[in-house]
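Feature request, filed as a ticket because there's no other form

It would be nice if the structure record came with a short human-readable summary line next to the tokens. Right now we just get the raw output. Example of a typical job, pasted below so the devs can see what we mean:
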Amino acid sequence: MIVNTLPEKMQQQGISIRELARRTGVTYTTIRAVYHGERRSIKLDVLDAICQTMHLQPGEIYRFVGSGEMPIDKSSVPTDPQVVELTSRPQHRTSRSSPGGSDAWVTWE
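Raw output as currently delivered:
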């Protein structure tokens, strides 16, 4: 399963959803959806902006946890951690490039 630790990382750094959206230039709606695990995919440019702003690696935001492992340290977790269970490994896809940059994304199916 893939564990979304963004809420924990934001809490540790004292960053709100609105503040992360302001700092990254990503819309509040998108950051909120990523925070709450409401998306099955995330564009690489969004993940890149979050990682650069928060000085994190992608693997610090989304972690793979095997069966039988504890997904996260329960003592440092907000009351409602976001856990996303997947049925297969991530697939990396790239759409046609746009003139303004990459439209690449990571999606899980």
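Something like this underneath would help us a lot:
The longest helix spans residues 44-54.
Residues 74-100 have pLDDT under 50 and may be disordered.
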